[in-house]
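Example protein
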Amino acid sequence: DDGLDYRLGARIDRPATFSPDTGTYLLANIEQEDEEEFRERRAEIGGGITHRFSSETTAEAGLTYQYSEIKDDLGERELQHLLLPLRVTTDQRNDLLNPQDGVYLELTVTPFVRLDESAAGSRVFADLRDYFTFGASDGITLAGRAQLGSIVGADVGDIPANMLFYSGGAGTVRGHRYESLGVDLPGGGTVGGRSFAGFSAELRAMVSDNFQAVAFADTGFVGEEALGTGEGEWHSGAGLGGRYFTAVGPVRFDIATPIDGEEAGSDLEIYIGIGQAF
């Protein structure tokens, strides 16, 4: 069963360190994730450089030491890693909480080295979102999202649990339990995968000045090996929702169900939040 999750951390950014658009940062975090499939306690400390290419595009590169204590269906282990996270983000959306136009793309590449063993690899993850609005008074919005991830060059046991891929929940496939899809082990049990693909589509229609009706469908894939190789499993969900617009942004309410597997049409998940789902 899921347990207590917590995170205590700090990040200090110093803008305009080397130039008006180039700054530096330092970070330190301690965190626990106690999920159904794994428990991981970790501490990290690091720093890096940030750069603003324009009002829409930013990048950062860092160096982080991470210590992890992991308990999952592979057993218990302690890992020490040196991470080199590289991230580029371009955000052309017209509104962060209720986007109707523009493209969002974030690409993260994280090479890593296990310090206590001769193991190294790299994690790549991309998140693309796009929006198209039309109709009377621009009252209808089509929103789409694609997520792709892959880990190359390291065995599953050498990778921190939080870097492996699961699917299910508000950020991937609604209607399925949070992180309910992973990779089944031959002797029983489940761990995260080394590849992920997720696709989401929403139709958002204004029905009054303050209320919007939404229909959506999500699908996700988790693979045993790097993306494009090996085997994996898909699952999908769909649902309906509503958005009530307030002064601080839309209040989101979604209800979804799996559309495949034994729980199709019978299990319901509810999601509440501020802002659109993506």
The mean pLDDT is 95. DSSP finds no helices and 16 strands in the chain.
